[in-house]
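To: structure desk
From: M.T.
Subject: fold request, one chain
Message: Could you run this one when you get a chance? Sequence is below, nothing fancy, just the single chain.
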Amino acid sequence: MSVAVGREGDDRMALRLAEAYRTLAEQGYACVISVHSSAEFSGSLDAARVAAAQVADEVGVETLDSGVASVGTGMLVERLASWRSQGADGPRALAAAHALSRSVRLLVVPTATARLSRRRTRHHHASSLGRTASTLRVRISGERALFLLSRAALTPLARATDLVELTSRLVHAMSAVAATEGALVYALLETGDARAVRAVEKPLDTNEFVSRCLGTAHADESVVETIGAGAVGVAFMPARVYTAPFSELALLGLDSAVQPNQGAEGS
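Reply: Done. Structure tokens follow.
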């Protein structure tokens, strides 16, 4: 099992991944599940597919797009590691991970000048001049945005200059999901700014929905490069899905009957 979230040249990344896959093959692994963050965060998925093709005669590699990124991808990796320790075979573990990926979401507030803040989203069709003007406005005002990353789709939910306002909206979005899908489990993403983390923790501590924190992940350099130092985020999913028996998730597989990820978008 491997996980990749960073950014580097595609050719270089493919070579590194192919080397990693060969090493795992030499260690006796017949099946490798290679987990990757959404293309909105990382270019590693395409590189992994190239690398998998290069080593096809040596080891079976299955690539998995988590649909999210960073700590959200980490939640899938943690579940896969747990299933492996329980003796799960590769094909069923992959099917279960696909089912799980349909329920995990990442809500993130990048810094105003971060790479993610400058990306065109699926709802953004402004002209080049309009995009330039928008970028200048954001930099001058310090306006930040709350984004939802789910099923490999990036959606802006709110904009404001006040971080507390955005983190309150973040928790409200989680509450909307909990209202329809039940108790949640979540993990925090921090980038070295304690104030930003507190701005999320406070409304989470006083929320009216049932939730459990799995921990806090410290973003690595590649994630900070994308969302900026001072960004904050929360990855979450329904607790009933996170704790579902492996056999149940494996049966759901690619045709998962888990409720669609729509709640946070409508918040």
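Reply (cont.): The domain at 2-101 is CATH 3.40.50.10170 (Rossmann fold). Let me know if you need anything else for the meeting.
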